[in-house]
Automatic annotation (TrEMBL):
This is SDR family NAD(P)-dependent oxidoreductase. The keyword Oxidoreductase applies. The lineage of its organism: Bacteria, Bacillati, Mycoplasmatota, Mollicutes, Entomoplasmatales. It comes from Spiroplasma platyhelix PALS-1. One of its GO terms (molecular function) is oxidoreductase activity. It holds the Pfam family adh_short. Belongs to the short-chain dehydrogenases/reductases (SDR) family.
Amino acid sequence: MKVLNQWAVVTGASKGLGYAYCQELLKKGYHVLGVSRSAQNILALQKQYPELKVRACDLDLSTIENVYKLYDLTKELNVTLVINNAGYGVLGKFQDSSLDSEINMLTLNIDALHILTKLFTQRFLRFNYGRIINIASMASFTPGPGFASYYASKAYVLRLSTAINYELKAEKSKVRVISVCPGPLKTGFWDRAKPSEAKQEYKSGVPVIAVDVYAQKSLNKALKAKRKNYILIGFWNRVMRFFMAVCPKSWSLKLLYKYQVSR
Ligand SMILES: NC(=O)c1ccc[n+]([C@@H]2O[C@H](COP(=O)([O-])OP(=O)(O)OC[C@H]3O[C@@H](n4cnc5c(N)ncnc54)[C@H](OP(=O)(O)O)[C@@H]3O)[C@@H](O)[C@H]2O)c1
């Protein structure tokens, strides 16, 4: 492994996909700054990579002030990669789901990601170097009855990132803002998404890719992407994407509604 002397900032680093990204980035020789409400566990990765730097930062990014605080903390670091991964969902029919939880979710999934994307794009453009990877979802491609606000938040992530990436390519910049669109992964995501009375063992209904494999494949593709705006990994996710593109909206909405409310 070659030490790159470049920093990667990963939000939502303490577990799930974000933790797996931290592991992959260290394998590639990046120093890593991991952020989440409680990120200290990632410091254990330091032992495996004594030649690299691992920093943990405990910040709740659903508070806007903390998003700016995070950016300020990175000012002295040679950051070349940002992975906006922190996010969660509030499952349930719109009429029943908690408004407070949804507003908190939208602040994290949309506002925090938007602010960090803006500030780092501006900073990277000064050096014409750097990449932002925004974690969207297969949910970005369609409205999601039964999970409405989460799907809408991920549509925002994909549309924002795609438009910025187009601008960057049109201006012949080397900076990129790439979306990654995971399908269902077995992580803590589903424990947080469900209301407490609906907690039961996670069932995706489609074959699920292991989180570490997903992180490795999606990171490799997102780091290499030149023309692509978003990354899809796995046969079933491609099938779902194709289905969503060709299937009449009334069918996909009906199927999604059944799928989400049966969870
Ligand atoms: N799992 C799936 O099926 C799936 C599918 C498509 C897309 N995604 C997306 O993938 C991303 C990662 O999700 P995951 O599946 O890895 O879920 P996860 O296991 O629940 O991990 C979420 C991460 O975000 C952090 N986080 C949550 N709230 C935060 C806050 N307010 N401020 C800062 N950090 C916060 C969590 O750490 P703390 O609890 O310590 O704060 C954790 O590190 C999300 O954007 C999610 O929408 C997931």
